UniProtKB/TrEMBL annotation:
<dbReference type="InterPro" id="IPR036928">
    <property type="entry name" value="AS_sf"/>
</dbReference>
<dbReference type="InterPro" id="IPR023631">
    <property type="entry name" value="Amidase_dom"/>
</dbReference>
<dbReference type="InterPro" id="IPR000120">
    <property type="entry name" value="Amidase"/>
</dbReference>
<feature type="region of interest" description="Disordered">
    <location>
        <begin position="132"/>
        <end position="152"/>
    </location>
</feature>
<dbReference type="GO" id="GO:0003824">
    <property type="term" value="F:catalytic activity"/>
</dbReference>
<dbReference type="Pfam" id="PF01425">
    <property type="entry name" value="Amidase"/>
</dbReference>
<feature type="domain" description="Amidase">
    <location>
        <begin position="28"/>
        <end position="424"/>
    </location>
</feature>
<protein>
    <submittedName>
        <fullName>Amidase</fullName>
    </submittedName>
</protein>
Length: 434
């Protein structure tokens, strides 16, 4: 059975809180009521006994200190923050049994930007251990026996259930795009480095991205304007409909039958709406084994470097997937790391050059190999996401229908590097078409 789903689209919620007399303390109370109702089954948030009191205090201070005619863009909006991201007054546990004092540090710039825009931290959202292996207790709000995806499990599930209109996550393989698809919300992984990564417990310095979850594309544009460096929403004009590129070859065979069937229907709907759909051969995507190997070497090698200060002393505290990844990462050589890092630029240029050569605006693929698996012991397969993460290009996933059983499906859109503004504008067109 699903939990109760609440509508909480960021753009209209933020507009209402900014422009009306709706009391922000009362709105925070409403959100806390939703959290209290859903949390026993959903487990989207890290437990916090005094959450309501903390939020009411912060909301009252915001209300009393902010003139009605000077309310910032996210005034009074509660935000979920993945528990590898430092937030003042809240410990960072990273889904781990290690002492949280090991990870203490100053508040992340992305959190500070949210506060400066008027947002309130609803709490820390559940993550898999160290944003990798080892799922937490979070469940999919559409079907509680199914995974919400990971590693940004609580962020996706909390936004999908409407506990808060915005959440922050991270992606090293597919940890924003895939859970957004599984939970039926909008997810965005901007271009690598577009959102500052200081104050975040690192997993892979070359691959980690900060990303966001909302229920609406318009809300994602609002969040991106607050969080991304040098956002220029008005400087990326687009036409009425995009030209979309579909990878040729065997890459799409990595998706399961349900995802491929849905993807064919999604392409037809895009074409019927006015989008031109072009099949584009991508030889780099045919090298799936080599690409996955290079991504894994870079990922695990850099993970081992991050955990070098703690791993030997606390190895028994680590769950098996991360312990094995770190052990494997210690065997990665400096030369292998350098070669895997060099492939980032090669892959990025390949994707961008192919779009330009074929006069296409963006790539479209299934956001995951299928709907959310019927388990909470794993978080699904990032195979559809990994190449775009490796390349560091911007990616947005939008809801794209459901299975007959009512499980959400998502469509993954990837654009040229550092053209995030343009990709989000196209995402709104695509979302409307679907």
């Amino acid at each position: 059975m699903p939990v109760r789903i609440h509508d909480a689209p960021l753009a209209p919620v933020a507009a209402e809180l900014r422009a009306t007399d709706r009391d922000v303390v009362r709105y925070v109370d409403d959100c806390c009521d939703r959290i209290d109702e859903a949390q026993p089954e959903l487990h989207a948030l890290v437990p916090e006994p005094s959450r309501r009191e903390r939020l009411r205090e912060a909301a009252a201070a915001l209300r009393d200190e902010t003139p009605a005619d000077a309310r910032p863009r996210l005034y009074g909006v509660p935000v979920g923050v993945k528990d590898i991201i430092h937030v003042d007054r809240l410990p960072t546990r990273a889904g781990s049994a290690l002492p949280p004092e090991l990870f203490a540090g100053p508040e992340a710039t992305c959190v500070t930007r949210l506060r400066e825009a008027g947002a309130l931290v609803a709490g820390k959202t559940v993550t898999t251990e160290f944003a990798g292996g080892g799922p937490g207790l979070t469940r999919n709000p559409h079907a509680l026996d199914h995974t919400p995806g990971g590693s940004s499990s609580g962020s996706a599930a909390g936004v999908a259930a409407g506990l808060f209109p915005l959440a922050i996550g991270t992606q090293t393989g597919g940890s924003v795009v895939r859970p957004a698809a599984y939970c039926g919300v909008v997810g965005m992984k901007p271009s690598l480095g577009r959102i500052p990564r200081d104050g975040i417990l690192e997993r892979s310095s070359s691959l980690d991205h900060v990303g966001m979850f909302t229920q609406d594309v318009a809300g994602m544009r609002l969040a991106a304007a607050v969080l991304c460096d040098d956002w220029a929403a008005g400087e990326e004009p687009v036409g009425e409909f995009p030209v979309v590129a579909v990878p040729g070859g065997t890459f799409l065979q990595r998706a399961g039958p349900a995802a491929r069937t849905a993807f064919a229907a999604q392409r037809r709907r895009l074409a019927a709406a006015g989008c031109e759909v072009r099949r584009v051969a991508v030889p780099a995507l045919e090298e799936v084994t080599g690409l996955a190997r290079d991504h894994r070497r870079l990922h695990y090698g850099e993970l081992a470097l991050v955990h070098e200060p703690w791993f030997d002393d606390y190895r028994s505290f680590y769950r098996t997937p991360n312990a094995e990844a770190i052990a494997a990462g210690r065997d990665v050589t400096v030369g292998q790391l350098a070669a895997s890092r060099a492939r980032i630029t090669q892959l990025r240029e390949t994707f961008d050059d192919l779009l330009a050569t074929h006069d296409a605006d963006l790539w479209v693929t299934p956001a995951a190999p299928g709907p959310a698996p019927a388990t909470i012991r794993t978080t699904g397969d990032p195979v559809m996401n990994r190449p775009w993460t490796y390349a560091g290009v911007p990616v947005v996933t939008v809801p794209a229908g459901q299975t007959p059983e009512g499980l959400p499906l998502g469509l993954q859109l990837a654009g040229p590097y550092m053209r995030d503004e343009r990709l989000l504008k196209w995402a709104e067109v695509v979302a409307d078409a679907l």
